[in-house]
């Protein structure tokens, strides 16, 4: 009988502690590709009263993200430049 009581108390104490998953921190790395168009200003010609947009320069950029998270969400992240 005493053995059951000790085992039951031990199991109750184990439940009161945070679960095993709360103690785990994991991470991942990811390359992010995105387009960053830069437009020049609008040029206006008064004699024809037309507006011309200069062509947008599209530049593909790569950034590296390091992210660590746990049970509660994101714990840490860092943006690393390529190269």
UniProtKB/TrEMBL annotation:
InterPro entries: RNaseH_sf, Transposase-MT_Hybrid
Gene Ontology molecular function: any one: nucleic acid binding
Lineage: superkingdom: Eukaryota
Name of protein: Mariner transposase
